[in-house]
Amino acid sequence: MKKIWTIAWKDFRTYFTSPIAYVIIAIFLLIMGWMFFWNLSHFNQQALQYQSFKMGKGMSITDGIIRPLYGNMNVIFLFLVPFITMRLFAEERKLQTIQLLLTSPVKLSEMVIGKFLSSFLLVSTMLALTVVYPIVLYIYGNLDVGPVVTSYLGTLLLFSCYLAVGVLCSSMTENQILAGAMTFGGCLFLWLINWASQSAGPVYSDILDYLSLIQHYNNFSQGIIQTSDVIFYLSFVATGLFLTHRVLDSYRWRS
Q1: Which residue among 41, 80, 200, 242 is least crowded, i.e. fewest CB within 10 A of its CB?
Q2: How high does pLDDT run on average in the chain?
Q3: Closest alpha carbon to 59 in 39, 85, 79
Q4: 74 near 155, Cβ under 8 Å?
Q5: What phi, psi does 31 have (nearest 5°)?
Q6: Is 1 helix (H, G, I), strand (E, B) or coil?
Q7: What one-character DSSP code corresponds to residue 248?
Q8: What CA–CA distances, in Å, run from 189 to 78, 142, 183, 195?
Q9: pLDDT at position 203, please?
Q10: What gap in Å lies between CA 109 and CA 196, rounded to an integer?
């Protein structure tokens, strides 16, 4: 475990030796800040209309702000994660330093987990910076904390799947741009795969719905934690890291 955290912490600090981490975090916070402001303004307008004209049932803060805000956050991570993971192994292969890693006393599994955790720490830092939004809503509004906690948990598990795909794609090529493109394409495919369930048969539609990453997030956004959703996300991450291990192991034997 100590070697894993050593690798993770070393790679995590590497992100901040170049502008990539600062640029990604700045873009993320800029977009999230704009979305929070827009959702809050739209919610206030609807609340005023309801108070003035009694037009239907008033929308809760959870439905009006939290769910759309964190739903959009998952889309933003879909675009940003490829930039975070594309260099993890691809850069090592391009610089030929991966040979040193593969022959080092560190186990291959420890290396894979450490690389994954380094990107996990960066994205978790970005996610932690958004805690200010529910804090503001809690102070100045009647916020239901439950859906906020489950939305954070669901987002954490969802972007872990993105990262697992990114680590796998980065291990398959030495071209960082190609690794990023493969990561985005793979995550987008697994995001939208349930669209085909509408035209598939009964059995295949259930399979496609189950394989969809976003389908398992819906319960978290509603304040519900189902064991099946948690198991799916954790199994997905474990499978991605296992495949990464196999790719690197085969590369070690070929080189």
Answers
A1: 41
A2: 84
A3: 39
A4: yes
A5: -65, -45
A6: coil
A7: H
A8: 11, 37, 10, 10
A9: 66
A10: 35
Type of residue at 114: G
The two tokens of residue 1 are 């475990």
CA distance to 22, 65, 115, 226, per residue, from 143 (Å): 31, 10, 37, 22
pTM beyond 0.85, yes or no: yes
d(CA 105, CA 97): 15
Token digits for 226? 């189902």
As a whole number of angstroms, the distance between CA 216 and CA 208 comes to 12
Write down the H helix ranges in the chain: 2-15, 19-53, 61, 67-85, 90-94, 98-102, 108-128, 132-140, 145-171, 176-192, 202-211, 218-221, 227-254
How far is the C-alpha of 16 from the C-alpha of 21, rounded, in Å?
6
Give yes or no for a contact between 89 and 167, defined as CB atoms under 8 angstroms apart.
Answer: yes
Question: H or E element: which one contains 114?
Answer: helix 108-128
Helix (H/G/I), strand (E/B), else coil: 104: coil
Q: How many residues are there in the chain?
A: 255
Q: Is the pLDDT of residue 241 over 90?
A: yes
With tokens 């999230």, the residue in question is: 32
pLDDT digits (tens, 9 = 90+) for 120-143: 999 999 999 999 988 888 887 777
Q: Which of 139-143, 174-178, 188-192, 239-243 has the highest mean pLDDT?
A: 239-243
The confidence band for 101, taking pLDDT boundaries of 50, 70 and 90, is low
- pLDDT at residue 42, as a whole number: 76
Say what angle helices 67-85 and 108-128 make with each other, to 10 degrees: 140
